[in-house]
Design a protein that fits this description.
This protein has 230 residues and is α+β, with helices and mostly antiparallel strands. It contains six helices and eleven strands. The structure holds protoporphyrin IX containing FE.
């Protein structure tokens, strides 16, 4: 495990706000989630203090609040399992996952001030049919992060969710990997550390948190913490 890196590129910044424990409660009954969160907070209270809580939701069929579909190029089936879970590391490590969690705040007013072609070029896909644009600029998000273009290839399984509250709105980016390497390589290229070209996303959005966590394997319905000597 390493701590989430703090990165700076031309005109953009990726903060590290590494914390110790991440709990993701999922469900469609909001009240139950609130009560579950309260009881976990009470149970963990002697050891951990709550730093940050975000209510995420699924927008439409899995779109970002810019309306672009998010997750299209996620690996599927066995490829998804290979991308997201550790293998070959032995008992206690195999079946675990390394996750990057990062809250992005969008300026949707600014995004809507761009014309449609400009927006498509920022993402690198056409909104109306989600087709990837071959002639998108090198700053296009899907060109920056094209998973097979890295050496070694950098595949992750993204499970991001949109968020919104009275402070604003954006994307809670969540990506599972068999190590933190793939996310790290993608993030470095997004901020221009490979070639000086910054991801177009930074024209209207910025990350405000960033943390790495390790999700232990689950054996017979219980977390296997043997790698931690527990
Ligand atoms: C404001 C935050 C972000 C937004 C709104 C966003 C949105 C999108 C969209 C719309 C796509 C195209 C459809 C798809 O394949 O899912 C995409 C692709 C992708 N994004 Fe993001 N993304 C964000 C942040 C990130 C970050 C921080 C990373 C990793 C460091 C990342 C990694 C990827 C990858 C790997 C792909 C697929 C690229 C490919 O192989 O074609 N994204 N994203």
């Amino acid at each position: 495990m390493t701590a989430f890196p703090n990165l700076t590129g031309p005109g953009c910044e990726v903060p590290s706000t590494q914390s110790d424990l991440w709990i993701w409660l999922r469900g469609d009954k909001r009240g139950e989630l609130v009560l579950m969160a309260r009881s976990l907070e009470a149970e963990l209270g002697d050891a951990f203090g709550l730093e940050h809580m975000v209510d995420g939701f699924r927008h439409d069929t899995g779109r970002d609040l810019t309306s672009y579909e998010d997750g299209t190029e996620n690996p599927k089936g066995d490829d998804a399992i290979n991308a997201a879970f550790a293998t070959g590391g032995g008992e206690g490590l195999d079946g675990s996952s390394f996750v990057a969690v990062q809250q992005w705040v969008h300026d949707l007013g600014r995004f809507s001030s761009f014309d449609q072609q400009d927006r498509d070029n920022i993402i690198g896909r056409r909104l109306k049919d989600n087709v990837e644009l071959e002639d998108a600029p090198a700053s296009a998000h899907v060109k920056r992060t094209a998973q097979e273009s890295f050496d070694p290839e950098a595949f992750v399984l993204r499970r991001s969710m949109t968020w919104a509250d009275s402070s604003g709105e954006g994307l809670m980016f969540v990506a599972f990997g068999n190590s933190h390497d793939a996310f790290g390589a993608q993030m470095r290229r997004m901020v221009g550390l490979d070639d000086g070209i910054v991801d177009g996303l930074f024209r209207f959005s910025r990350p405000v948190t960033g943390s790495y966590y390790w999700c232990p394997p689950v054996v017979d319905g219980h977390l296997d913490l043997s790698r931690l000597g527990l």
